[in-house]
Amino acid sequence: MSIKLNHISTHFPATILNNDILAADFPETTAEKIFKNTGIKQRYVSAPDEIASDLAVKAAEKLFEENKINKEDIDFLLFCSEGFDYIAPASSCIIQDRLGLPKTIGCMDIPYGCSGYIYGLGIANGLLAANMAKHILFLTADIPTKVIHQTDLELRSIFSDIASANLISKGNYNQHFVFGTDGSGHKNLLVDHSGFRNPNYTDKQLDLDLPNGQMKMNSTEIFLFAVKAVPKLVNETLEKYNYSINDVDLFVFHQASYFMLDIIRRKIKVSKDKFFINIEGVGNSVSSTIPVALKEAEEKGILKRGMKVMLAGFGIGYSWGATIIEY
After folding, report:
1. At 274, is the secondary structure helix, strand, or coil?
2. Does 199 share its domain with 128?
3. Euclidean distance between CA atoms 148 and 161, whole angstroms
4. N or C end: fewer C-beta atoms under 10 angstroms in the chain?
5. Residue 327 pLDDT greater than 90, yes or no
């Protein structure tokens, strides 16, 4: 049993935050230094009144238009995000109505970040295998810029608001997934004052500046986690498939950081031409990084139908996951 990733569409907000604009807010740095430290030249910022589901709806509408998809064929909707409309109800229910999808479909929110795309593919695989769905609309959208303080150069340099829409059906190859979790690292990347554990009204200043919470990151610990966990994840995934590293045509991982990815690439001994990195022009868009990278790789002629592609997501939680698809 496997998934077939039929189509991907992406949506980018209108506002581009390039390094020149960002550096203007921080006299102690320059556009060149920001690029040297991050490998990123620009990222996208949603409008003040624009949230994750708005971006997801636009990505879905683009998917339908670009690929002449009949909405009546959709029988399940998955929405992966960390920026839902409300604590309840599920944002996927709201998206179903906004898109005019059939009332006979199932809807599910997936509250995951950096590994969320892999988790979503795994859930889609299970729904298809159980014959609970035939055509799944899988949406990803995140708005990290809304929980980053304007004085936080490190986080503003990295994160981006982007959405993707993916149409998934059954494939005809054997697919496997590897997942992992280590919640002991959850405090190294979290949105504080964003829920019931530590509500925002306990911090008067935060309530004024960031009403939905503030992202905090221990970048050193996140880096150490990733460069240790991801090579092991790659090996475990290859073992599941009984593959060698040379059996995989392309590696498309969560675009967390250029330097992190390059170290991981070297640790797993993969050549640059087989390891796709596109963070320079889009930044880290959390759950959307992998589909955005897949779309760009296809448009550039790097990703072709029939290729074996390893996908890996890792980060906040800590959580991680990987699979190999036949594209």
Report:
1. helix
2. no
3. 12
4. N
5. yes
**Residue type at 98 in one-letter notation:** R
End residue of a domain, out of 115, 144, 170 = 170
Residues 189 and 282 in one domain: yes
Instruction: List CB contacts of 26: < 8 A, sequence separation 6 or more.
Output: 153
Look up the domain containing 33 and give its range: 3-170
Question: Do 181 and 158 share a structural domain?
Answer: no
| Residues 73 and 212 grouped into a single domain | no
In angstroms, the CA 221 to CA 182 distance is 13
What CA dihedral angle connects 89, 6, 42 and 55, to 10 degrees? -30
Residue 285 confidence (pLDDT): 98
| pLDDT tens digits for range 285-323 | 999 999 999 999 999 999 999 999 999 999 999 999 999
**Residue carrying the six token digits 């905090």:** 216
Task: Provide the CATH number for the domain around residue 314.
Answer: 3.40.47.10
Indicate whether 197 and 255 sit together in one domain: yes
Burial label, 306 (beta-carbon count in 10 A; 0-12, 13-18, 19+): exposed
Let me know whether 145 and 27 are in one domain.
yes
Paired tokens of 42: 């620009």
- Taking the alpha carbons at both ends of the chain, their separation in whole angstroms is 14
Per-residue pLDDT reduced to its tens digit, 203-243: 777 777 899 999 999 999 999 999 999 999 999 999 999 99
295, 6 Cβ separation under 8 angstroms:
no
Tell which of 170, 197, 219 closes a domain.
Answer: 170
The pLDDT > 70 percentage for the chain reads 100
pLDDT for the residue numbered 203: 75
* Ranges of H-type helices in 173-270: 204-209, 219-241, 258-268
Number of domains comprising the chain: 2
Is 9 within 8 Å of 62 (Cβ atoms)?
A: yes
Same domain, 79 and 203: no
Residues 81/109, Cβ–Cβ less than 8 Å: yes
* Rounded Cα distance, 118 and 120, in Å: 5
Structure tokens at 46: 């949603």
